[in-house]
Amino acid sequence: MSSSSSEAAGALGVAPPGWKETAAAAALMAVAVAFFYLKLTQHPTDVLTGIHAGGHNDLTSWFLRSRETPGLLFSQGGGWGLWDPYLGCGMPLHGNPQSGLFYPPGWICYALGAERCLSWLLVAHFWLSGLGTFCFCRRLALSRPASLAAGWLACALPYPVAHLAEGHVAQIFTVAWFPWILLAFERFLTSGGRKWTGVSILLTLSFLAGHVQELYYLVLILTGIVGAQCLLQLRRGERRLSGHLLMHWVLAGVVCVGLSSIDLIPILLNSGGTARGGRLPMELAGAGLTFSHFRQLLNPFALGLPGENTARYGFYWCFLCYFGVVPLLLSSVGTLTNWRRPAARRLFWTGLISFVFALGKLTPLYRVAWLVIPEIGAFRMPSRALFITSVVVAVLAAFGLDLFFRKRNETGSFGRWGTVLTGCLLIGIPVWELGRHANRILATIPPENIRRDSELSRFLIQNLQGHRVLATQSLYSDLEAVRDGQRRVRGYEPVAQLRLAWLIDALFEVDDGKLDFAGFQDADLSRINDRVADLAGVKYFVSVRKQRIRDGWSMVLSGRLPPQVVPREAAAELLPFHVYENQHVLPRAFLVGEIINTAGVAVSDRIDMLEQLDPRRQVLLEHMPDIPDERCGFTPVKIVEEVPDRITVETVADKPGVLVLTELFHPGWTATVDGAPAELLAADIAFRGVVVPAGTHRVEFRFICPGQRSGMMITLGTLLALLIRGWIVRLRPTADQVA
To answer: How many structural domains comprise the chain?
Structure first.
């Protein structure tokens, strides 16, 4: 038997933990999670957040809203088109790489509400990661105590916990599957590639969770390991085994792509129209760890608490270089004492490569990857590879602990008890160490401290009447807007649409060129382009500061309201607000006749043209449509029916004209005029336009996410093929039955 075959046979001889052992481990992981996230355990109805920024993070600013929006849209009559009409002049939900629409655990939020259950879902994923780490360690024939310790460490690894404090839901959901992927990958390798389906399914679950960056890094490393294994087999003359392994790895990847297509294809088709659709410059994409961050190896707060010294050292959650002092020492011991074991060597190289990669542009590894590997340059912050390093440290720490628990059988009674005691201390100290870190940087927000039904909210519901509000998030958040069914010009979206960016550029006079897509900064009324504001339907401007009133604007309301969120035991300081009304706002739908053709005009010049445009007479179109020279003047149009993914308007005019609907243009939208297909035009850079003949006509706009149907068919077809394969394998006689 060849050496590789012996290795595989030895590994396959290790029985995985039985259901009783797994159930007991799951219960112990739950106890550990309750300890690590004690603040949430003590206040189970609270929302989990960080101690920095007054409780504001991505969970409160984006994920609470994004995980509630699909359910709200369905309740308002929206279909599978999944278009959010309330934020940023409209934006797609499907095709957003962080939406997690088809991630099964996330569906709980649609049924029960994100505010009620999202924090516990996050904690449950740490539990899932811990259980996966335990099962992986047991697969590697490590002792139960060492495997349990590794699982407990995985439940509170500092780097993922720092992301938890920042509210990075999609990242936590994605990386929770990494121990399970490593387990399936180990089975894949030791079976010579035969057991590949588990890898495909787990990779798919991780992808659907909504943050592909960390998964992409892991897949690249695993692919490198497969390639190295194939080369070793070729050197030993095992050409057939090498080809078999490589073929099944490719097959696992193809099946994963097929299962993920329901989300993958819409994401790929949507990305071309977003601000994150291409390779980023090296200086921006390659910002990783610096040598200053190595000081955190011994003390996570050596560079300050979360929110401190950000300008100098970057975000705490992004560049935390801390794995726990004792876990790091144990992992070093485990690597040195188990170097002869192929699994330990694979884990070491996985951890080392991911850590070096996290240094970003400081190392040749990242620079070469940025140049050679597709899509590496599309991601920011290579330090997120530390998610992988963290999992590896936990597993290698189990190798180090296992050394102590194995020795108890090789010593006398006194020595045995001393060894066990030492092992227990080596488990207890890192558990305390990581638990202390988690509870130091986490906080909770009581449900009653999340702003609802404010004076400003009630005013907008009563008076906005389908128009839009321009307000900072601190005064009127995205979550409030979606719950109230009101429209904001800006909205926090990690992957913003390009056409919205162009509109925001024209709407604001910005000196430094930095656009505030989300509305986190308080704007200045004097720096708003009135013509673009009229066109975009901005009826109200809301500011923390009292502004100098301009022509066409009037102040209609002032007051004070509570902050958007207030952490438990924190003092709430009321925020002043001032509301200004635009007296010349245009309706959301209207007809105009004068066309300015912008075909061949650079984007920057088109933005300049929009700033000078008279929207009551003119419309910018990206090509000249087939329309008579004699056209109608400005004519308001009535919206007769509206649900999230369908809008119907009725036009009445004595001459033909261009119907402008001031909702964001997107290739997923189509238009019909009296039931007949009509060309949908990009009007005024950001909006939708349709040529309408003279007379009375009914124009309907419908949204279906590009790639949704084809992606769904591919996913269903792949799933059916997997089920048929599983049925055939079950019917196939085993070797014992044949004998």
So the answer is: 3
Whether residue 504 sits in one domain with residue 396: no
Asked whether residue 242 is assigned to any structural domain, the reply reads: yes
Q: How confident is the model at residue 1 (pLDDT cuts 50, 70, 90)?
A: very low
Same domain, 560 and 618: no
Q: Using CA atoms of 118, 123, 124, 129 in order, give the dihedral in degrees to the nearest 10.
A: 130
**Span 26-67, pLDDT tens digits:** 999 999 999 999 999 999 999 999 999 899 999 999 999 999
Same-domain pairing of 409 and 509? no
Of 567, 582, 597, the last residue of a domain is 582
Domain enclosing residue 395, as ranges: 94-445
Residue 512: pLDDT above 60? no
Q: Check residue 61 and report its DSSP letter.
A: I
Asked if 216 and 300 sit in the same domain, the reply is yes
Co-location of 595 and 578 in the same domain = no
Residues 227-255, mean pLDDT to the nearest whole number? 94
Q: Work out the angle at residue 57's Cα, subtended by the Cα atoms of residues 55 and 63, and round it to the nearest 5 degrees.
A: 120
Whole-angstrom distance, CA of residue 564 vs CA of residue 578? 16
Burial of 530 (0-12, 13-18, 19+ CB in 10 A): middle
pLDDT tens readout for residues 402-439: 887 776 555 544 455 666 677 677 788 889 999 999 99
One domain for residues 433 and 574: no
Distance CA 570, CA 505 (A): 37
> What six digits make up the tokens of 708?
């949704």
Q: For residue 520, give the nearest of 501, 537, 544, 499 by alpha carbon.
A: 544
- For residue 622, the domain's CATH number is 2.60.420
The pLDDT value recorded for residue 494 is: 81
Q: For 658, which DSSP code?
A: E
Which pair of structure tokens corresponds to residue 676?
């007949």
Q: Output the pTM of the full model.
A: 0.92
With beta carbons less than 8 A apart as the criterion, state whether 533 and 684 touch: no
Phi, psi of 695 (to 5 degrees): 105, -165
Q: What tokens were used for 364?
A: 């040749």
**Domain membership flag for residue 22:** no
Cβ-Cβ contacts under 8 Å for 723 (sequence gap 6 or more): none
